[in-house]
């Protein structure tokens, strides 16, 4: 008997030529891509790239001007209720009821989505354990730190039959440790519960552990692949050099204007390759105090695709509007 032909994984999300305009701003310009079942898929782009607009279209909050969005094969525009039932959504704006307890928030969500009582109870306990909030179940939400609230929102998104989790910048405004924990939960969820996760972020270092990354900028998809394949196709090596004097800095900048990609304080960043470092050191070796070599990274993938460093924009306007206070090792808004 011939070997069975492997069945290709189905698409959990399928977007075809989605465009959306707000007045003069073309927020999405013919976006097409698919997220396979059980992928941990990142949508990476700077502020204003169109990520939130895309998630709003997938969750049927917004209608696209043109194009088709499918969730588990269901057309979102034609059958929004059925499509939404498959989705667990965590938006940027917190939407928990602060006056209710942790468990009451989950109960309420289960009721709204019509989850039968017994199953609801069981899921609530499971989800509380998953995000390590079981001990907080009876506490009012207002007493939680913002990191804990984010975890609760993730738990809440999974109380109904949501096989696909959409998260819009779930780690924005959180400290590094809390961000790591959120990602650990997402990886665990994907591994233990066969869930598809589509997450948006502008933190480039977060997407290294995703199955695939879609880089979006100015409403267009620039590249989509595994982190390794993106680095191989678009990554560049960089050197960061610190010239001894302003005159040395000016000389290096003039000589290598076509390689210069950034300047932070005294440090210059230049695109490198095998021959470059030897030639550079022969000429400027005595005129610098430091030289650091960076292997191709997703940061340089973004740079070579857009001509800009994403890191420069990481401290976006939205984060600066958060007033931070510390509680239990996690920031609060
Ligand atoms: N309601 C709106 N009215 C007008 N313009 C909008 C509206 N919402 C978004 N935009 C514009 O559309 C573009 C895409 O915005 P969107 O919020 O989707 O980007 P984003 O990648 O999610 O960025 P951010 O992380 O800042 O939310 C931006 O230029 C934004 O200013």
Automatic annotation (TrEMBL):
What PROSITE patterns does the database record attribute to this sequence? ABC_TRANSPORTER_1 (PS00211), ABC_TRANSPORTER_2 (PS50893)
Give the protein name, as stated in the record.
ABC transporter ATP-binding protein
- Gene3D superfamilies from the UniProt entry: P-loop containing nucleotide triphosphate hydrolases
* Similarity section: Belongs to the ABC transporter superfamily.
The UniProt entry, under Pfam families, shows: ABC_tran
Upper lineage: Bacteria, Pseudomonadati, Pseudomonadota, Alphaproteobacteria, Hyphomicrobiales
A molecular function (GO) term: ATP binding
Q: Which UniProt keywords apply?
A: ATP-binding, Nodulation, Nucleotide-binding, Transport
The reply on keyword Membrane is no
User: InterPro entries of this UniProt entry?
Assistant: AAA+_ATPase, ABC_transporter-like_ATP-bd, ABC_transporter-like_CS, ABC_transporter_ATP-binding, P-loop_NTPase
Q: What are the ABC transporter domain coordinates in residue numbering?
A: 13-243
Q: Which domain of life is it from?
A: Bacteria
């Amino acid at each position: 008997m011939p070997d069975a032909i492997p069945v290709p994984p189905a698409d959990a999300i399928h977007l075809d030529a989605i465009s959306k305009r707000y007045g003069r701003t073309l927020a999405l310009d013919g976006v097409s891509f698919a997220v396979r079942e059980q992928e941990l898929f990142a949508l990476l782009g700077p502020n204003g790239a169109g990520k939130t607009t895309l998630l709003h279209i997938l969750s049927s909050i917004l209608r696209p001007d043109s194009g088709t969005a499918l969730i588990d094969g269901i057309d979102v525009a034609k059958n929004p209720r059925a499509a939404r039932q498959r989705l667990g959504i965590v938006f940027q704006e917190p939407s928990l009821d602060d006056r209710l307890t942790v468990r009451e928030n989950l109960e309420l969500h289960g009721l709204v989505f019509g989850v039968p009582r017994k199953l609801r109870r069981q899921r609530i306990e499971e989800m509380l354990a998953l995000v390590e909030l079981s001990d907080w179940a009876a506490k009012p939400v207002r007493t939680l730190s913002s990191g804990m609230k984010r975890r609760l929102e993730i738990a809440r998104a999974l109380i109904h039959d949501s096989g696909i989790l959409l998260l819009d910048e779930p780690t924005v405004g959180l400290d590094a440790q809390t961000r790591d924990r959120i990602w650990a939960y997402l990886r665990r969820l994907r591994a233990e519960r066969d869930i598809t996760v589509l997450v948006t972020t502008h933190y480039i270092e977060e997407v290294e552990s995703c199955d695939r990354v879609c880089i979006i900028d100015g409403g267009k998809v620039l590249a989509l692949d595994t982190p390794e394949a993106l680095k191989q196709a678009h990554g560049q090596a960089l050197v960061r050099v610190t010239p001894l004097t302003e005159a040395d800095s000016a000389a290096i900048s003039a000589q290598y204007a076509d390689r210069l990609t950034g300047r932070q304080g005294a440090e210059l960043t230049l695109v490198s390759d095998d021959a470059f470092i030897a030639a550079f050191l022969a000429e400027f070796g005595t005129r610098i105090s430091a030289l650091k070599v960076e292997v191709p990274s997703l940061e340089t993938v973004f740079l070579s695709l857009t001509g800009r460093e994403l890191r420069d924009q990481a401290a976006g306007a939205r984060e600066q509007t958060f007033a931070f206070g510390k509680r239990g090792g996690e920031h609060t808004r």
